[in-house]
Design goal:
Structural class: alpha/beta
Oligomer: single chain
Number of domains: 1
CATH topology: Rossmann fold
Largest sheet: 6 strands, mixed
CATH superfamily: Phosphoglycerate mutase-like
Order of helices and strands: EHHEHEHHHEHHEE
Strand order of the largest sheet: 3-2-4-1-5-6
Distance between the termini: 20 Å
Number of helices: 8
Number of strands: 6
Length: 199
């Protein structure tokens, strides 16, 4: 059995302003630093075989704070980079809702059917996550690993691990500085995974 801690980094100024960050590299805000510190305290005594980290500043800084107390091995994975929202990046979510109400609603209800202008589809992000999970299942036959991934990519990772629904990816952008524990058998199909707990 493998336990996966799906960890969301602390928040950024874009998060507080209601801006779409996507794959832009935005540092942690002061509040995000405090959230990363709280994560560090929560995970201090949690044994992790490895912490896999998205290649963005908010995730890397959160990983650094976690590493202050949890001395697990850390590895940055490019495939965990956040969903590229293309021309939406940097815009206010409210601006997209006002200027493109149909597209906004479609992304809210059926995100897999929408590609932001010059951006990446949820399906493309999902495919790279599935490939990463297949590699991790070969590398880890048991134990506990962490995946430190910003939203909305964390929701896509969660969907790849446990199935179900992607949910409202606009709302997922409001989830930072938290983690949940997922569990699976390495030989299981992805659809057979189940959630243990959320923090």
């Amino acid at each position: 059995m493998i336990e996966v801690l799906l960890i969301r980094p602390g928040s950024t100024t874009f998060d507080h302003e209601g801006r779409i960050k996507g794959s832009l590299d935005i540092p942690l805000s002061a509040e995000g630093e405090a959230q990363a510190e709280a994560l560090s305290l929560s995970l201090a005594k949690v044994k992790l075989d490895c912490l896999y980290v998205a290649p963005c500043e908010s995730a890397l800084r959160s990983a650094e704070r976690i590493g202050d107390r949890n001395f697990c091995k850390q590895k940055t994975l490019d495939c965990l980079r956040n969903l590229n929202h293309g021309l939406w990046q940097g815009k206010l979510v409210s601006e997209v809702r006002r200027l493109q109400p149909k597209v906004y609603r479609q992304f809210q209800e059926h995100p897999a059917d929408v590609c932001p202008p010059e951006g990446e589809t949820v399906q493309a992000a999902h495919e790279r996550v599935k490939a990463m999970i297949a590699k991790l299942k070969k590398r880890h036959s048991g134990g506990r690993i962490g995946l430190l991934v910003p939203q909305p990519m964390a929701s896509i990772v969660r969907y790849a691990l446990v199935g179900g629904s992607l949910g409202d990816l606009w709302k997922s952008e409001l989830d930072f500085g938290t983690y949940e524990t997922l569990e699976f058998q390495p030989q299981q199909a992805l659809a057979g995974l189940s959630i243990l707990a959320a923090v």
